[in-house]
Amino acid sequence: MTRYSATTPSRNAIMMFVGMMLVALNLRPALTSVGPVLKAIGDSLSLSSIGQGVLTTLPVLLLGLAAPMAPYAARRLGMERTVLAALIILALAMVIRPFLGVSGLFLGTAVAGGCIGIMSVLLPGIVKRDFPESASLMTGLYTAVLCTGAAVAAGATEPLRIAFSNEWQPALAFWTVPAIIAAVAWWLQLDGKQVPATPRAPKTSLFRDGLAWQVAFYMGLQSSLAYTVFGWLPTILQDRGIEPVTAGLALSVSILVQVPTAIAAPWIASHMRDQRAMVVLVMLATLTGITGSIYAPIEGVWFWVVILGLGQGGSFSIALTLLAVRARDTDTAARLSGMAQSVGYTMAALGPLLVGVLHERFESWNIAGLFLGLIALGAILAGLGAGRQLYVLEPEAP
């Protein structure tokens, strides 16, 4: 496939850019649309807090489990056709999952998470390959659009439920529309000449590298907080007395304000000696926002969700940055991305599930809040190791 220059964009480059942004727009709505209507789903299907926790956990677990499948699929189909297939399956999963009862809801949510996991692994490689002269800019734009999609789904799903006569099923199914649009746009930019990637010779396993594990742990722990917020923040706020629409809007605002720090945090960190100070800063902001949302007087909730969003935007973008700067070359960065996302998202799936278990057991969010605080502290420790100016698969200096 033709390499695209940032200075002389062709029609194909423009179409690829549009396609990539539309794909990025679909990487979170399947996840963030559930939280605002989780109580309605639970009441309708008689799901306990543990069952609701499993529902919020499934897509995150599949993000990790499906990540290793991405390179195998890309070798057989090519990266572009693999993304197209994932988009089509994602659209099908989202349109049918609300209408097939409990089993269909869980299965459709799991399939959607797997499709998102595959696309999440492949898109960074496509950016580096086709826009090598503006990879940082493209990554920033891609992250900003991803956050925008997450925020819109979080804020609009509950109003959609009300618009659809208080039915949550069509409100969830609505998010298949942007997936279909993205699939059409992605299909239109395919040139029909793509070939599967050539299999590579076996390389030294990153699973034997301590630094790679620190990157994976940081990715997983900060993601665990993010997906817990996606799944449970509206329910937490509703239990504290906030109306469902306002609770969904609070999550939407928290996600939307991630955009500036998602772009700024890596840029600021690039002017520092390494990423450790930025890791501590964004994780402390995340911890502060979570703590305030659960324990502080509810009148100040908007302040706390903004602090939470600023922290989580920075923590996510720093995690993506570590995948690139901890590797010497593009191939190693791609392998580190696959390993860290596979391990990290599988680990992250435990967060929403255990929060549901703790809430069910203690009938309060207080213990769950302490648990989330421990996750944040663990992310800081992992980030202090991952943020050092070192490279994977290279021995540390004595």
UniProtKB/TrEMBL annotation:
Transmembrane segments: 12-30, 50-70, 82-100, 106-127, 139-156, 168-190, 211-233, 245-265, 277-296, 302-324, 336-358, 364-384
InterPro entries cross-referenced by the UniProt entry: MFS, MFS_Cyanate_Porter, MFS_dom, MFS_trans_sf
GO molecular function: transmembrane transporter activity
Gene3D superfamilies reported for this sequence: MFS general substrate transporter like domains
Keyword annotations of the record: Membrane, Transmembrane, Transmembrane helix
A Pfam family it matches: MFS_1
Residue span, Major facilitator superfamily (MFS) profile domain: 208-398
CDD domains given in the database record: MFS_NIMT_CynX_like
Coiled-coil ranges per UniProt: none
Name this polypeptide is given: MFS transporter
Species: Marinobacter adhaerens
